[in-house]
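Exercise 3.2. Students should predict the tertiary structure of the chain below and write it as C-alpha cells, then compare their answer with the key that follows.

Predict this chain's 3D structure.
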Amino acid sequence: MKSIDMRFDLSLINRWIGKKFNKYKCDTFEFTNSVTQIVGLYIEDEVYSLTNIQEPVDYFGMNDDISVFKLKESEDSSVKSAFKEAEMISTPINGEITSIKVVNELQKMTIDDMPKYEVWFTRAIIFEAGGREIAFEKSIVPFSEEIIIRRGYNLIDGLESNESFLEDWDDKYSPEYSREIIKLG
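Answer key:
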C-alpha cells in the first residue's frame, strides 16, 4: 500500500501557543470568503506562508495536478498575490494565541478489493486568539487552490464535509475518509 503524508508540522505550530498573532495578509475578498494560493500569517516577529498550490501528485493511481496545502516559515516579501496587480490586505488580529486546532484528513482507497492508498493531509487550521477563532481551510475540491477564511466562534462546526470524495469513482474504486482534530494549547 502506498502511504503519502502531507500534514502540517505540529512542532512548528505548537511553538505559537502563547505568542501574539499580529495579523494575516491575503488578497482582498471579492465575492467569497476565500483567497487563491497564499495567506501570510504574522506571529510575533515571524512570518509564515500558508499555501495551497497545484503540484503533480499521484492521485490514487492517476498522475494529476492537485492542490497541496503547505505551511512554512517565510518572509514578508514572499507573501504576494498569485495575480498580477492584485491588492493584498492585512487583517489585524492582535491577540494572544490560546489554542490551535489542526484538522487532518485521511483518505483511503481500495482498488479491486486491495488496499492501495492512504493519504494524510491537513484540511484546516483554526486559531483561538483574542477571544475568537480564525480558520484557514483547504477547499474540498482536489485541484482548487482556494483557502477559505472564516472568523467567529465554533468554526470547527462549519468546516466543509468531504462526502463528495466518496462519489463518482469507477466500480473498482472504494474510497473512504475520516478526520482527526488535534488541539494544541
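Discussion points: The first helix runs from residue 10 to 14. The first strand starts at residue 2 and ends at 6.
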